[in-house]
Amino acid sequence: xxxxxxxxxxxxxxxxxxxxxxxxxxxxxxxxxxxxxxxxxxxxxxxxxxxxxxxxxxxxxxxxxxxxxxxxxxxxxxxxxxxxxxxxxxxxxxxxxxxxxxxxxxxxxxxxxxxxxxxxxxxxxxxxxxxxxxxxxxxxxxxxxxxxxxxxxxxxxxxxxxxxxxxxxxxxxxxxxxxxxxxxxxxxxxxxxxxxxxxxxxxxxxxxxxxxxx
Length: 214
Ligand code: AMP
Hints:
Layout (H helix, E strand, L loop, with lengths): L3 E4 L6 H12 L2 E4 H9 L4 H12 L5 H13 L5 E4 L5 H13 L6 E6 L2 H10 E3 L6 E3 L28 H15 L2 H8 L2 E5 L4 H12 L1
Parallel strand pairs: 1-3, 1-4, 2-3, 4-7
Antiparallel strand pairs: 5-6
Helix pairs in contact: 2-3, 4-5
């Protein structure tokens, strides 16, 4: 099974696809956003700083990301998914060097090409289970919870992420266009790059991803 980097706008479905890959193929899912949210929930100085940045929709400094990357890669077995990392050119370089250092296989890159209108709809409709982390979407027939506002598995109330509002989405999307999207050119030559255009239905996208990774 191939290692994967997902590149996509915020709320485009990277987390949903990663969950499916974990369940069916036993992938290790490395979500930089989840790691940073955990860091932000700590009351440490760095935790408070990260919390402020997450709420603003800006990117956390490369210095913090660099420290986390080595720690993550030493403790992760293959196959793995990088979700939300790298997000700019210097992080791509950090990742390339760290993979060589730890003798890890190069990942392929899957780009989910979702347009801005669709991404904002998904961000404002996204709900998360605070207990198991499962992701739901109010506006998707496939991803709606069975009982409105409740996790199908844990029965607890679903919540929205602090940064899934229209205002913060704008900053997250601008950062994506300016800093992350240019990585596609780099990945075209440095890795195998696969593009999935206008991905709408989660299980259809998953079938395409399955063809790519096998
Ligand atoms: P995500 O869960 O991928 O939507 O990320 C949520 C937030 O975490 C982003 O808006 C950034 O503030 C931060 N973040 C996630 N991944 C990175 C990264 N690779 N570099 C810097 N900041 C990140």
